[in-house]
Amino acid sequence: MPRRQPSSESRESASTAPSDRPLRLLSGPAWLTVLLVCAGSFLLMMLALAIANDRGFLAMWRMQSEVVQLVHDVRKIEAVNDELLLNIERLRHDKGYIEKLAREELGLVRPEELVFEYVQ
């Protein structure tokens, strides 16, 4: 049996089928555009991660402000601590300071002293 020649219609449809034509790579400006879009997308993703990640810029900024606040709190507590240490030393060694506190805060007097109270 003789072989039939394909008609021109079947040749056209066969030539447009994706499996029959060879793949061609992008060249020139199209390839460059795809590369730039991919690189830009990658850079945007990396920038978003650097800013919004739990170890990113915003987290670092929050931690930095927290460190500043904690240093401020530590300095205030150290100042109060120094005042308390000074007060302890005065209570241990200064009899006049103890007497002053006893008179002012507790209202104590010596046995030989007279107390005058003014009632208004």
UniProtKB/TrEMBL annotation:
Keywords: Cell cycle, Cell division, Cell membrane, Membrane, Transmembrane, Transmembrane helix. This is Septum formation initiator. Pfam families: DivIC. The keyword Signal does not apply. Residues 1-19 have a biased composition (Low complexity). GO terms for cellular component: cell septum. Residues 1-23 are annotated as: Disordered. It comes from Candidatus Entotheonella gemina. The chain crosses the membrane at residues 30-52. It comes from the Bacteria. InterPro entries: Cell_div_FtsB (IPR023081), FtsL/DivIC (IPR007060). One of its GO terms (biological process) is FtsZ-dependent cytokinesis.
